Amino acid sequence: MKRTSVNQHTLSSLVSLFHSHPPSHLVNSLMGPTATKPNLPWKVRFLASFLTFLSNASRRSNGTINRRLFSLVDRKATANPTPVHGVCSSDVTVSAARNLWFRLYTPSSTASLPLVVYFHGGGYSFFTADSIGFDSLCRLFSRSLNAVVVSVNYRLTPEHRYPAQRDDGLDVIKFIDQNVGVLPRSADVSKCFLAGDSAGGNLAHHVAVLVSEERLRTVNVIGLVSIQPFFGGEKRTRSEIEINRVPFISLDGCDWYWKAFLPHGSDRDHEAANVSGPNAVDIMGLGYPNTIVFMGGFDPLRDWQRMYYEWLKKSGKEAQLIDYPNAIHGFYYFPDIPETSLLLSQVKEFMSQQMCNVN
């Protein structure tokens, strides 16, 4: 049986920090009875449960975050011009004043390659483009998809509320459009994809709407990859109520993230959260890109993700929906579980289809 890869330094840190709570105690307390748990390797279950515990502990009741506490597991990776697993990386500054930059991943291939602009997850509150987990994920995407990947380091909440993140995303697209030379020669910006997971999937949607209204000179967005996007609303869905005690996502946690993210005085039916709800932006007349949406059977947000897909279809947009029955929210963070390999192959197929339509 293939062993699941877990960063040993991170794992040893977790064990030393949480020595008073053995894995079985932690996993059972957060994931519920065995019958309701997804089938995951124990290392994945332990790490996911611990990250859930620590992110919950880092969120304060007054709406602030104990970033020093969360930094114990949010290790950073430096850019590496020397290829690692066939991919080299470098950092590009867009606005030093806003700490807006992106990490660029370039595979060794010299052929013409599509460009993927990626927005990381973390509830808009946690992680950065140089977090080890997302550095590894984007490197995996670059290698597996044979694409140049731009991972955007956008501003976080609660220090910066919406629309700061959306504006950061659009400004990165504009920067690339006006400074194509910062990318490797192999990057074909006429075949650009937006992509994101969780909160990053939400952000990718809002950036896609703005890009649809822009007149870009060189960048042509032809597809959107939405991986378990973080959407919500005032009304509780069936999946939010019935799928509980799972890693990363809880009703209380989601409510906290929305309160920290949305403009002051807004409720969860704000267009930034409930993108297909009563205040949704009308995209019927926009050139919104063809979209593939991924959701998981153990993700409390799955009903919102399905509604997003259905809204895209009703708006006259081309969309696909992929459901992994055994997947938890954030499954792609763990490279060796089966759903991650499926995700990579289906994203690659989607990208190939869209590029064929352009040719």
TrEMBL record:
Origin organism lineage: Eukaryota, Viridiplantae, Streptophyta, Embryophyta, Tracheophyta
SUPFAM superfamilies referenced in this protein's UniProt entry, alphabetically: alpha/beta-Hydrolases
Organism: Flemingia macrophylla
Domain Alpha/beta hydrolase fold-3: 116-332
InterPro entries assigned: AB_hydrolase_3, AB_hydrolase_fold, Carboxylest/Gibb_receptor
PANTHER family the record matches: ARYLACETAMIDE DEACETYLASE, CARBOXYLESTERASE
One Pfam family per UniProt: Abhydrolase_3
Name assigned to this protein: Alpha/beta hydrolase fold-3 domain-containing protein
Sequence similarity: Belongs to the 'GDXG' lipolytic enzyme family.
